[in-house]
Write a sequence for this structure.
């Protein structure tokens, strides 16, 4: 039995760090484990220009604990009004790493997103030409489509035509949740133009968990967790260690007051124990030997970055304790608790 595992220090390729008080509260958890993170731009108002991405980056760096070794990789939030020359300039100077496509109203803070993908074609042409990754929240927003089918529909209706029109565009399908998405990425990824991130929570819960004994707001996120067969497909895909699947927690903190109410918002906060949660999944699948590829190698390879030099050690035994965290103005943020207790801890 393996009770200690040392891997290259990982990166998190999908993180919501927020701003202000919440940023200062949650950032240390991501920065202690992950060397780099792709920072999502869905602030209020969203990060839509390179100038704004730079000020946000400065705010993140200023919020880092002393001695932290962490690099935020910034993203732009695409809108119908995004200027391709701003995107190109920001990518060339290294101040933005990728751009995020939220279909308008697909998820938390996405009302400024793209309403018609054709409107984004000039930007996508530019991104394809310069090799800048497009990160996609892959759900259709048509209210006539069942919430559990929105990702699978997105592949057929939006992703296939998009990839036909932009065959060389680098695309990351973010936080995949279905058998359909896993199969599509497994088949078409691995050539440097298509990959997917997988969250820890989608590897650990299915949709029953959201309603176990009552409604569980801290298991609600978008894309919503699906049936058990989909969770199993995700576990199989992530633990293969193949290049097209890598770690992206989608850790999405909201204060409890915003989740535990009549219209609670979507987002699961996993940052405090993110790597431990993934270790649990890989251990349960008998695939701990693939964790380093998934967490530390495949992401940098896709983004064309070197792997990190440092290493990190996980130990098995008494797992990290799950507890709510407190913002400076005394609001609680509940951390994701897996269905069975954690048995891994970092350090
Ligand atoms: C995210 C958030 O809260 O910003 N919520 C979520 O449920 N994942 C937005 C997102 O990534 O969809
Ligand atoms: Zn997200």
């Amino acid at each position: 039995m393996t009770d200690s595992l040392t891997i290259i220090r990982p990166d998190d390729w999908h993180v919501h760090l927020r701003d202000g008080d919440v940023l200062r509260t949650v950032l240390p958890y991501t920065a202690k484990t992950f060397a780099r993170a792709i920072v999502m731009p869905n602030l209020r108002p969203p990060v839509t220009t390179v100038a704004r991405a730079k000020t946000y980056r400065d705010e993140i760096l200023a919020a880092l604990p002393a001695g932290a070794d962490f690099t935020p990789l910034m993203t732009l939030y695409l809108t119908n009004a995004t200027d391709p020359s701003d995107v190109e300039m920001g990518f060339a100077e290294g101040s933005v790493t990728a751009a995020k496509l939220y279909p308008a109203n697909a998820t938390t803070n996405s009302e400024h997103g793209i309403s018609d993908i054709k409107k984004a074609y000039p930007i996508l042409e530019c991104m394809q030409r310069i090799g800048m990754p497009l990160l996609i929240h892959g759900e259709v927003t048509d209210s006539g489509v069942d919430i559990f089918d929105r990702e699978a529909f997105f592949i057929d209706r939006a992703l296939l035509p998009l990839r036909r029109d932009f065959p060389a565009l680098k695309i990351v399908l973010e936080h995949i949740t279905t058998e359909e998405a896993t199969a599509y990425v497994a088949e078409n990824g691995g050539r440097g133009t298509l990959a997917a991130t997988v969250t820890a929570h989608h590897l650990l819960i299915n949709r029953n968990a959201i309603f176990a004994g009552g409604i569980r707001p801290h298991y609600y996120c978008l894309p919503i967790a699906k049936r058990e067969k989909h969770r199993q497909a995700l576990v199989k895909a992530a633990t293969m260690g193949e290049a097209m699947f890598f770690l992206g927690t989608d850790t999405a903190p909201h204060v409890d007051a915003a989740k535990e109410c009549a219209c609670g918002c979507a987002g699961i906060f996993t940052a405090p124990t993110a790597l431990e949660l993934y270790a649990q999944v890989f251990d349960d699948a008998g695939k701990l030997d693939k964790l380093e590829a998934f967490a530390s190698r495949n992401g940098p390879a896709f983004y064309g970055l070197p792997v990190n030099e440092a290493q990190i050690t996980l130990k098995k035994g008494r797992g990290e304790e799950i507890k709510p965290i407190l913002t400076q103005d005394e609001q609680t943020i509940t951390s994701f608790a897996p269905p069975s207790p954690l048995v891994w801890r970092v350090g």
